[in-house]
Amino acid sequence: MNTTTNAQTLALAIHNARRQRLPLGNGAPRISPENIQQAKVVQQHLIDRYIAEGHKPVGFKLGLTDVRMQAALGLDQPLASPLMAGWQIKETTLDSHELIEPRVEIEVAFVFSRPVLQPDVDDATLLSALAGVTTAFEFCDSAYAGWPHSIAEAVADGLSFGRFMLGNTLHKVDPVSLARLTAKLMNHGELVAEGAGSQCMGSPLDACRWLVRQRALSGTPVQAGDVLLSGALAPMLPIRAGDYLSVDMGHLGTLECAIN
Question: Residue 246 belongs to a domain with what CATH number?
Fold first, then answer.
């Protein structure tokens, strides 16, 4: 895939697959596994389509914030993709039939109260720009049958976006507590995954700082009201109708969601 036309063609195929909830099979346009930059072009075309339909950008999601996974895949930084306001679940249920092959991640979410314009932001400025932090579910999905075959395909597909849910309470951002954060994911009260804030670039706040700096360097800084999903704290797990998920993040509280 070498041309803008081909990038637009793949973005359209991904968009149609998600809209129709029919995953792309082996005959779909492919992208080279090593071509992350081209994948980002496809992603931008895909996001442009959602914006043209009236979707409103509301922040960003990070992926591959575990430095061990970055090293295994030959990367030296995480990946990011925009979030749309319409992807946020405001109730306590997820309709899994709206997605193709949903999976869940537990994450820390930051909400900004003011923009951060300078890439060399210090901690005091970053903390003052945050309205608070809370628990989050990210319900990932994929336009590709069987999920992406490479990181490049995941990037092109908006980092396998789906839906997201935030906790009801914003808490004051405490750097020490975030670095020591532990998280437990239960399904019908049974422990199914555990994680820690340290798995997210050492701390979710470090992931947040990285995103803020990258957005400022790109000339598209984070804005007041933006949400940041700062990366998975535990392995991604498949979900299905009938599941009842709950996550406990200690001082950040709990969050529950029924899967219909």
Answer: 3.90.850.10
Question: Residue 5: which pLDDT band, with cuts at 50, 70 and 90?
Answer: low
Owning domain of residue 73: 4-259
Flag whether the pTM goes above 0.85: yes
Kindly compute the dihedral angle of the four CA atoms of residues 13, 40, 210, 169, in this order, to the nearest 10 degrees.
-10
Q: Which helix (H) or strand (E) element contains residue 48? A: helix 36-52
Name residue, tokens 């697959």: 17
Long-range contacts of 236-240 (CB under 8 A, 24+ apart): 236/103, 236/104, 236/105, 236/140, 237/103, 237/104, 237/185, 237/192, 237/193, 238/101, 238/102, 238/103, 239/94, 239/96, 239/102, 239/103, 239/104, 239/139, 240/96
Of 177, 178, 180, 170, residue with least CA distance to 255 = 170
Going by pLDDT thresholds of 50, 70 and 90, the confidence category of residue 2 is: very low
Apex 85 CA angle, 189 and 10, nearest 5: 100
Average pLDDT over residues 3-13: 80
Query: Domains in the chain: how many in total?
Result: 1
